[in-house]
User: Fold this.
Amino acid sequence: MADYKEAPLATRPKTLDPAEYFNLSHDYRRAEEDRAALRARLKRQYMVQLNNPHRKELIEDPALTRWTYARTNNIYPNFRPTPKTSLLGGLFGVVPLFVLYFVFKTDRDKREAKIKAGTFERPYKLSS
Assistant:
């Protein structure tokens, strides 16, 4: 920690804060140790169930269940249909298709009219 120099525009990382290590109360440390012990017991129980060669039932993993629920039910949506997103979707998704259709159709119609009038010069000759 002695060699660490703080950046002028950034705060000190929480892991390098001396108050994080030295100024903790005994109750807080005991609570952290209890939580770590509970996590270790749950992890050991899951690993024993997972590595049991005689198991017949499905192992319930609460974290996996929560993740599956959140993924299927979209409880934290990244996209919400609002008038703004609908307008942007139309502008960037639908309008370019119509513009390209219009450009290609008018170019094709002009070329066809020139061919019918006999004034179209083919840039690439297929036969000599």
About this structure: The helical segments are 18-22, 26-50, 62-73, 83-117. DSSP finds four helices and no strands in the chain.
